[in-house]
Amino acid sequence: MKVFQRVVERAAEEGAKSIFLFQGLPPVFKGDGVRRFDSEPVTEKDIREFLYLTLTEWQKERFEREREIDYGFEAKDLGRFRVAGFFRMGNLGLVIRPIPEDVPAFEELLLPPILKEFTKKKQGLFLVTGPTGSGKSTTLASMVDLINAERPCHIVTVEDPIEFVFRPKRAIISQREVGRDTRSFSEALKRVLREDPDVILVGEIRDRESMKVVMELSETGHLVFSTLHTRDTLQTINRILDFFPEEERDSIRLQLSSALLGISAQRLIPRLDGPGFVPACEVLVVNEAIRTLIREGKVYQIVSLMESSKKDGMITMDMATLELARRGLIALPEAIGQAKEEKRFIEKVSEIAPKRVESMRKRGILRIERETILYDMETSDPEQVDSSGYLFFTGEGIVLRERRMAGSDDHFVIDYSILSGKKDAFSLPSFFSMEYMIRATRREKKEYAFKVMVFLSPPEEAFFPSPYFPLVRSEDWQAITVHIPQGLRNRPVRYFGLLFDRDIGEIVFRKVHFF
Fold it and tell me: What is the pTM for the complete model shown?
């Protein structure tokens, strides 16, 4: 456990969301990025010692039999953790995620206020969906704790494993863990009525039997909360129907239309105003119109109905990310990356001025749909490009290496493809984006200045952003998006250039787009 203690303490300092302990490799942390712990590789003995000190006898037998396990445990002075143990290529691996000691308050999580309304219902089914690690358990815990604080009732949870430990307030709470207190979700749900519950939290719906019982419970005077691993509301409804054979689906549609209260499909997006993440939630509120669509098998029409039902509390993912960007909680590139209809979304988001120029940089690759791009810089034709340094056209992109020139404050690369007729002219849209990696510098600095220079028609030279865009040196690719000033948009471009800080010795760049 000494290895675990050292790693956890370091992970807490780094603000890590997950800890990876893989046999033969040093520990790795994942938060806003991925960081490797500077230590000796983790051994099989280290991992087995940790597992056998934290697993119950029953869990040990299960792990040896199934070769994977998901469980929770508490370490003195360190807190609670959720652990996934498994084998990878014959070697042991662990993924450990810290669990906050207290259930986070609803307001702290920046969840949509409409979710509170579901906690006031007396019966029905509410689902929180999303990929692994998207905060589903945290959202549900905060909603259940609202009920715990506001009304006298009996709350029964069935979890695998128990993550948050609730402290009874006005409610009585019975928390049951699969493997320790019950054999399975389905077994616990079959007998849950004997416990006289008012509110039931099911950690995850994994099979047809559990899904059927959950719907029956929600129709017989119980408020039921659960999760599914689905990306949006439409996929969630289809997944529920897919649990059942074709011949049963008409009756299941009828039952689901009656039982379902709503769905929140969420994703975690890196915060702009500090470390951590903020949830973007697509929220379906089941009203009479939605019930009719489910009952009649017209679920494909639900998204368009959500778009026109904002007054009822409906939120599409595009609405959610647009609002987070407007509030300055997420960067515009992050919002664009989540958009379902990117072209329409960019038109809306282009009116939002960035809160600060640093907000537009992010680690990794920026994905933009091909049809959204108005101009894509050619990275394989040296005849169309001029520069202040040595240019190398490689499979990775264009490499610019410094060559000192008298009177030049910046390194520059100019694209003449439009002027030469090789590419069609275009008018400035809303955004400029580029991926880059600084490989060498003449002088180490926290950031390196970058600007885009455009030559417009009628003749005018313009630069953006002002004063400059900060590039950073990193061993990883960086993706940047620059907000083009409103006053320059829709002006025809004759040619353009990229201006790089003179203290950059070598930089490689690619995917230079206007969109």
Answer: 0.76
